[in-house]
Task: structure prediction
Amino acid sequence: MNCSLRIILKVRWIAMEVLLVLLLATSLAPLTHAENLAERYAASGELIITQFQTAPFPHPARADGHKYKDEFFSAKESYSDSTVAIFIPKGFHETGKIDLVVHFHGWDNNVTAALKKYELIEQLVESKRNAILVIPQGPRNASDSFGGKLEDTNGFKRFVSETMETLRQKSSLKRTEFELGKIVLSGHSGGYRVMGAIVDHGGLSDHVREVWLFDALYAETEQFLAWFDRYHGRLLNIYTEHGGTKEETEKLMGLLKDRKTAFWAGKESAIQSNDLKACQPIFIFTELPHDAVLKAHRTFRQFLETSCLSEK
Result:
């Protein structure tokens, strides 16, 4: 074998090794990320980061991506992530029924960023509520409100069924023969759309006891109102001056007033815990900016503390 051939073969072998290392690193990246995130919250409880068959994405309606104004979001980058985060707070009391708080992030966001930025886990722990937090990945870092498979008929029912099975198979819960209890739907900004679909045709409307809209009432108002009329759950809507939800919120309040349906409306500084506990539409005006309504005043925790969810 001449010298030139040896050099060529060696270069090829090195190239193959480099490619193998890169492929291995890529395949382990999601696992490593999930492990690091779980470690971050280990002192507070058990965080499971996993992939769901019933997660919002991928979905045929976004197989070719999505364009908003002049920006294009590809299927690969924004609509192929089936990640779901499930958090069980430390000291969770196993009663035979599992109550869920399912939160939907808004535009230009993802599961990891939402957990960190809005301190959802920290606020759940602070609230001492005996519930499990579930956050599905919506359109990843995209300007899009589409809820994927969770907008399909009974799509939410299938998603919750997989959530329960995941808890049985992958969590440290000792009891596996549990049933679904109460469901609270929580959504920020663009999360409104999938929530509207869920209460309308998601398959578990009778389990949904509360709906929380964090500056998120852009549309789907008829679906939310129909759910309230049928189940008389707690509908919380906190809105801002410039978040784009004020007009729709005022329209809904006007409709309720015309038909003489009781509701509470006022400034954030005026509302008391007893006001929040009422099972009626509650409209809270805040002077906070759109992106601060979840965390700045610990409003997510406040909604938890005054909810139908039991204390640990």
In short: Residues 18-31 have pLDDT under 50 and may be disordered. Residues 3-40 form the longest helix (38 residues). The radius of gyration is 22 Å. Residues 1-40 form one domain.
